[in-house]
């Protein structure tokens, strides 16, 4: 057993006088684990009462968070993207050649994807934190909604209630705010994600220049 694993073992004496080898009692609050000072059988009453009070406070804070609006609703949205180009001197310009930039800017869907990434600027559309982001998409339309941190992306799939923070995000997500339509490339099928209403492969979108794709 590693020293890290031992940190989460109860260790309190059992009735036989041996150290308890059960894991510390834990529970989820938001996205994080909370640990007691012992397993369920050996957790001290003062600690349990303190944890219960903290748990109630965290639950109230979580409910308040669920009642809030997605952070991206407060980001300014430019009136017109027609003349948008990559910011001069930005990291993307430093990494891409003029030819690559021309190809992206000349493709409506690629340009729309670049606009979305630029607008979000590495921020999660729901919580606003700068973390590793994943591309979120609508499974019914097959279209990208925006970029989320892994925590919000997981919770978005759990909270289906339309009256929560995540339900409000689904109604007004980044691509809808920006007026963009971007197909989601599904790495598991190595193809664009088909709408769930499509019954045959022929009903999928066929190319990036399809009507309504991009700006």
From TrEMBL:
Pfam family for this entry, one: Endonuclease_7
The protein's name: Recombination endonuclease VII
Family annotation (InterPro entries): Endonuclease_7, Endonuclease_7_sf, His-Me_finger_sf
SUPFAM superfamilies named in the record: His-Me finger endonucleases
């Amino acid at each position: 057993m590693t020293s890290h694993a031992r940190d989460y073992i109860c260790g309190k004496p059992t009735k036989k006088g041996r150290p308890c080898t059960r894991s510390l009692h834990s529970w989820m609050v938001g996205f994080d684990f909370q640990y007691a000072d012992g397993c369920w059988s050996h957790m001290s009453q003062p600690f349990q009462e303190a944890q219960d009070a903290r748990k109630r406070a965290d639950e109230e804070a979580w409910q308040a968070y669920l009642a809030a609006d997605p952070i991206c609703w407060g980001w300014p949205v430019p009136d017109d993207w027609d003349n948008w180009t990559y910011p001069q001197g930005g990291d993307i310009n430093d990494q891409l050649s003029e030819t690559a930039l021309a190809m992206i800017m000349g493709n409506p869907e690629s340009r729309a994807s670049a606009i979305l990434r630029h607008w979000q600027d590495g921020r999660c559309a729901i919580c606003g934190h700068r973390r590793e982001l994943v591309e979120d998409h609508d499974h019914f339309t097959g279209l990208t909604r925006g970029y989320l941190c892994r925590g919000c992306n997981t919770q978005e799939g759990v909270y289906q209630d339309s009256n929560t923070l995540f339900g409000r995000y689904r109604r007004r997500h980044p691509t809808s705010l920006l007026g963009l339509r971007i197909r989601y490339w599904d790495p598991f099928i190595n193809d664009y994600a088909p709408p769930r209403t499509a019954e045959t492969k022929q009903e999928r979108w066929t190319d990036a220049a399809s009507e309504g794709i991009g700006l």
